[in-house]
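TOPIC: backbone geometry
CONTENTS: sequence, structure tokens:
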Amino acid sequence: MGTELNPRICVIIAGGDVTGKIGIPADSLVICADCGLRHARAQGITPDIIIGDFDSYTEALPEEIPVLRLPVEKDVTDTFRAVQYGEEHGFTRFHIYGALGGERIDHSIASLQMLRYLYERGEDAVIFHGNTVLRMQYGNGEVFRYPRFDGDFSLFSFTERCEGVTIRGCKYNVDRITLTNSFPLGVSNCILEENAEISLESGLLLVVQVRRDAHNA
């Protein structure tokens, strides 16, 4: 990574499904991963750089935008390499679009593992998938607050077990329960109070917010 952390947000547009508007915060770095360029063009977004092996995007590349061309045979996906590029330039905050869906379910699974990779490195990352927002929460006892929204709120154990899970401010509140990665006990809750308060003592939770209103991070 760079020697200085960059407070700006790195927006990555990948080639999976994109529905709704791609949010581009002011002064962000915008990277298109391979055929994520199609999504950017459809919404009038000009990326700062395009990264990929271009096995999916076969149209002519724009001459005015820098391109980092990757070999087809490599150890990471184009999206993961885009994340690494952001890290190399000091970014620790990532908004990722087009990381899920499409014809490649293996790429969707890889994207969830990529989300874990970022959180294990202490970085802040969010995957946007239409009106669905995905992030992770570590088990260090800290209480995280999620503002109320119209929609469903689900928690999944992304480690073998999540111990001491406590939920407050929701339809289904619990105190220090265990979630496992083999039974979806935490699916389809909803926030009733101003904020949901979630904490866990150990493990890693995948937090999924499926909004019926417009999403925000």
Observations:
- The chain is about 15% helix and 35% strand.
- The helical segments are 36-42, 78-88, 105-120.
- The CA atoms of residues 113 and 192 lie 30 Å apart.
- The domain at 136-211 is CATH 3.40.50.10240 (Rossmann fold).
